[in-house]
Design a protein that fits this description.
The complex is a heterodimer of chains A (about 475) and B (about 425).
Chain A (H helix, E strand, L loop, with lengths): L19 H5 L12 H11 L5 H20 L5 H13 L9 H13 L3 H13 L10 H14 L4 H9 L2 H6 L12 H9 L10 H10 L3 E4 L2 E4 L9 E3 L2 E3 L3 H9 L2 H15 L8 H14 L2 H10 L16 H9 L8 H10 L22 H16 L10 H7 L5 H13 L5 H9 L5 H5 L1 H13 L8
Antiparallel strand pairs in A: 1-2, 3-4
Helix pairs in contact in A: 2-3, 3-15, 4-5, 5-17, 6-7, 7-8, 8-12, 10-11, 11-12, 13-14, 13-15, 16-18, 18-23, 20-23
Chain B lengths: L4 H9 L33 E7 L9 E2 L4 H6 L11 E2 L5 E2 L4 H8 L3 E8 L7 H10 L11 H9 L9 E4 L17 E2 L13 H7 L16 H25 L11 H15 L5 E6 L13 H25 L6 E7 L19 E7 L5 E3 L17 E2 H13 L3 H5 L12
Parallel strand pairs in B: 1-8, 1-9, 5-11, 5-12, 6-7, 6-8
Antiparallel strand pairs in B: 2-4, 3-4, 5-10, 9-10
Helix pairs in contact in B: 3-9, 7-8, 8-9
Classes of the chains: A mainly alpha (about 475), B alpha/beta (about 425).
């Protein structure tokens, strides 16, 4: 709906910040803001995990509108791909308490998927419904939880929330696995309101109690959902001023009718897709929240954001820090290879992002917290392990081979290729000079082009610019 | 071989620019003049080391009330002969294999805080451990550990450094789970090594520090990018400081040959490297069958663990003394519970309640803190606590780390007299 709005575009760079109408109208390239490699790379970093060379080139040919459309609804058998992976995950030992298998397959899916935006959004919802199987649970239940998030990741948020509210992994993690008339599960109800929907200070203690009452009769036994009628309190409840004999399904609808719920979600999505440095003003968020509140259509919201002027403006460009997953996959995907995701899962955990184990229900803090001396050393070392062909990743990524495949053999051309592939050559003059400097007088380059390609690729992905999404 | 503090500093600060010290440097640093100077420690930069004893330590056979007739009566096979104990006074003595702790005690470097626990103690391992790790004794809902919360308080996102680290071989305990701070799990100092060969040209540039002055100019006003650039320099410096520190200080030969001693040595090296870590967490017992959970045939296992504990900590103290850092460091131990006063018929003991904690450091008050809990007034089957463990936490947070304990523990607790005034 926003893309159709006729709006005034600001005339120059130094005009006051444009309003929400301009921000959420579709970006149309012009001489001032041409569609170029830089913006194509930006789009693929946010809507996926980085682009291959062919994807960047196709995006340049197609322009932003068609590229966003393809990211939202890719050609190719996405459903078939995901069914296959669901089957792989189905083979995880149901008795296993560990989520390592889930994590391994999920990372593999992120690398190989024909629909990266779907995985990116599944990760977003994992960060939002940030449960961790810290209490007795099992890996299979958590795998089903992630599959549930994926099934709705670009679908309807109402349906997702309704599914999650009755999801065994969720209920177990939030102490909601045994909700009796006489012994309410308040932690689940509180988290449901405070963290997952309307946010802090937007509800009363009465709302918490009556949401808990609405969910009475919900149990998890041996990791499976059980609804026990005689434990359900069917008396009248009052949730956000609405009275009735509500069930949990009703509670989901009533809570989502609160404007605060849509605002909270749109604000989080803004931070995820657009910028973590500048919190959006209420006025900026308002039109998106109002539209989202009507249908909770996630794909529509994501599409509006990805097509927007705001998304392709300086307010968004390099205004996010890559999470460890984004950093690692941003190295792997452009290199067109697959790596050992069991090892990768462990390395990512050591950088602060243990998939299936967010630190708290608030999710990962993100932004600058990703970057410390310790995590940067580990990012550097992971990049080297991935690109150098050393254990435990083996020689699965082949920088030299990828450069040659795209027609670059000389060291100069290879160097420029990696700069364009990974950073669209958007570097300060000093950094570019330095990388060019690596070419002259490099004995290693003359001696061993394969090794030299690995060193060059590593030099590019350890530049500070590459830590930004 | 050990290197004195002086030699260490010389080694660490000798080069005018870091980039000149390494054989190869990352491309983003090539030609950049980076100070190798680790910030000298400030007096208020105190360091806390917490040692978790996994399994439930039998405090009664650790600090032994040998003069109490009820001790011998309750421990028909496990009682330790008075003559073999390292006597503290006419009533108490350390386990025979804790000679090193006795010496620290005599030097005034070790406090024994007696009778520590909490009301309605939990006797289930994970639940009791969670209570100690979260400092939340009534519910299991805490999302963070007490030291994770302390790390979040100390953490300054702009600093690019982490205030806490977990050093150990079992997965990170919940105590260090933080909302914001990413607490690294360190298994080997190798994890601080900066990997990757820079191509040859970067090395050549490195020989001429300051050659690339453009790097010092702000980079087109992106604050996030500037932050990453600054932290990249910090990261490279930390890597080098750890490398140097790993060569200084006590050699592994100066530590006993225990896995736990190697963990403490790593902590001493990281303290020496001055990479800004204020809180270290480590553990003993979690990596071996049973650990301190001595339900049967307790004597041998328990003695061996206590020997590892006291000998390793004594070596750590000697190491820190060498460069006068002992006054900046405070170490405390805890276990999830003590054990039953009465032995169980299998030459072992079961889950109990109160236990003694040890606090070691140059600024520890030394001596006994609180009385030994009476053996004729039990809390169920274990000793009755008279000192809530959160009082110990509050004392250390407020008076040692200078963090408001109310912000960490949710309420105020009166202090325990375990630090020097």
């Amino acid at each position: 709906m926003f893309s159709d709005t006729e709006v005034q575009r600001p005339s120059g760079r130094h005009t006051p910040p444009p309003g929400p109408d301009w921000a959420w109208a579709a970006y149309h390239p012009d001489t001032e803001r041409p569609w170029d490699l830089r913006l194509a790379g930006h789009l693929y970093r946010r809507a996926g995990f980085g682009a291959t060379w062919d994807q960047l080139q196709q995006a340049l040919r197609d322009g932003p509108a068609r590229t966003v459309e393809r990211l939202l609804r890719p050609q190719g058998d996405v459903a078939g791909f995901n069914r296959t992976y669901d089957e792989y995950e189905g083979a995880i030992d149901p008795g296993s308490e560990s989520t390592e298998g889930v994590r391994r397959w999920w990372l593999r899916r992120m690398i190989e998927t024909p629909h990266p935006l779907l995985e990116k959004m599944t990760l977003f919802w994992h960060d939002h419904f940030a449960i961790s199987p810290a209490r007795p649970t099992n890996g299979a239940a958590f795998g089903q939880h992630v599959q549930l998030l994926r099934a709705h990741a670009l679908g309807s948020f109402s349906e997702m929330l309704d599914g999650v509210a009755y999801d065994p992994a969720m209920l177990m993690a939030l102490d909601g696995a045994s909700n009796r008339k006489t012994r309410l599960s308040l932690p689940f109800a509180r988290a449901f309101l405070e963290e997952l929907t309307v946010g802090p200070e937007q509800f009363s203690e009465g709302d918490v109690r009556d949401v808990a009452r609405a969910f009475t009769g919900v149990f998890v036994l041996r990791s499976r959902l059980r609804l026990v009628d005689r434990e359900h309190d069917d008396g009248p409840k009052r949730i956000f001023g609405r009275e009735g004999p509500w069930t949990g399904h009703d509670a989901v609808k009533i809570v989502l009718a609160q404007p605060a719920a849509a605002s909270l979600l749109v604000g989080k999505l803004y931070r995820w897709l657009v910028s973590e440095t500048e919190p959006p003003s209420e006025a900026l968020i308002a039109p998106l929240a109002a539209s989202f509140a009507k249908d909770y259509d996630i794909a529509k919201l994501v599409g509006t954001v990805l097509r927007s002027n705001q998304f392709f403006s300086a307010a968004a460009y390099r205004q996010r820090m890559k999470s460890p997953v984004e950093y690692a996959l941003g190295i792997v995907r452009p290199m067109e290879g697959v790596v050992n995701t069991e090892a990768l899962g462990n390395d990512l955990a050591n950088m602060g992002q243990e998939l299936c184990h967010p630190p708290t229900i608030k999710g990962w803090a993100g932004g600058r917290t990703w970057i410390t001396d310790s995590t940067l050393i580990r990012r550097n070392n992971l990049a080297w392990a991935l690109l150098s062909g050393s254990e435990p990743y083996g020689g699965q990524l082949d920088p030299r081979g990828v450069a040659r495949k795209h027609g670059h053999s000389s060291t100069e051309k290879t160097s420029r290729f990696f700069r364009e592939l990974y950073l669209q050559d958007d570097l300060g003059p000093a950094a570019r000079q330095r990388l060019i400097g690596l070419l002259s007088g490099g004995e290693s380059g003359r001696g061993d082009p394969v090794k030299f390609s690995r060193q060059l690729a590593h030099a590019v992905v350890t530049l500070p610019e590459f830590q930004l999404a | 071989m050990s290197v004195s503090r002086r030699a260490f500093l010389k080694q660490s600060l000798g080069a005018s620019a870091l980039v000149a010290t390494g054989a190869s440097v990352p491309a983003f640093l090539a030609g950049t003049a980076v100070s190798a100077h680790a910030e000298p420690p400030k007096e208020e930069d105190t360091i806390l080391v917490v040692v978790q004893l996994a399994g439930g330590n039998d405090g009664l056979n650790t600090v032994v009330p040998y003069a109490d007739a009820l001790y011998a009566k309750n421990r028909p096979t496990l009682r330790l002969p008075a003559g073999a104990l390292h006597k503290i006074d006419s009533h108490l003595g350390f386990h025979p294999q804790m000679r090193a702790f006795h010496r620290l005690y005599q030097e005034g470097l070790l406090s024994v805080v007696q009778g520590v626990g909490y009301p309605n103690p939990n006797q289930n391992h994970p639940e009791a451990m969670r209570a100690w790790q979260t400092a939340e004794t009534k519910t299991a809902e805490a999302q963070t550990g007490w030291l994770g919360r302390a790390a979040d308080q100390l953490y300054r996102p702009t600093s690019g450094r982490v205030p806490a680290a977990y050093i150990g071989h079992i997965p990170p305990p919940f105590a260090v789970n933080a909302e914001k701070a990413i607490v690294p799990w360190v298994r080997s100092l190798d994890q601080y090594a900066w990997r990757g060969d820079a191509p040859a040209r970067a090395r050549a540039d490195a020989a001429t520090p300051g050659a690339d002055s453009r790097r010092t100019q702000p980079d087109r006003g992106n604050a996030l990018l500037q932050f990453v650039e600054k932290t990249s320099v910090t990261a490279y410096a930390s890597s080098k400081h750890v490398e140097v520190a790993a060569r200084a200080g006590a050699a592994s030969a100066d530590y006993p040959n225990f896995q736990f001693a190697a963990l403490l040595r790593m902590i001493a090296q990281l303290i020496r490297a001055q990479v800004g870590i204020r809180i270290f967490y480590t553990e003993l017992g979690g990596n071996e069958p049973g650990g301190f959970d001595t339900h049967a045939g307790q004597a041998l296992n328990h003695g061996a663990l206590l020997e590892q504990l006291s000998e390793s900590i004594a070596a750590f103290v000697r190491d820190l003394k060498r460069d006068n850092s002992l006054d900046r460091v405070m170490l405390m131990t805890f276990s999830e519970f003590g054990r039953t006063v009465l032995e169980n018929g299998r030459r072992g003991t079961d889950h109990g309640a109160a236990q003694p904690l040890f606090v070691v450091g140059g600024k520890a008050r030394g001596g006994l803190v609180g009385r030994h809990p009476p053996l004729d007034d039990l809390d169920g089957v274990g000793l009755r606590a008279h000192t809530d463990f959160r009082r110990v936490y509050a004392t250390i947070l407020d008076r040692w780390l200078h963090i408001d304990s109310r912000a960490i523990l949710g309420e105020g607790f009166s202090h325990v007299d375990l630090l020097q005034a």
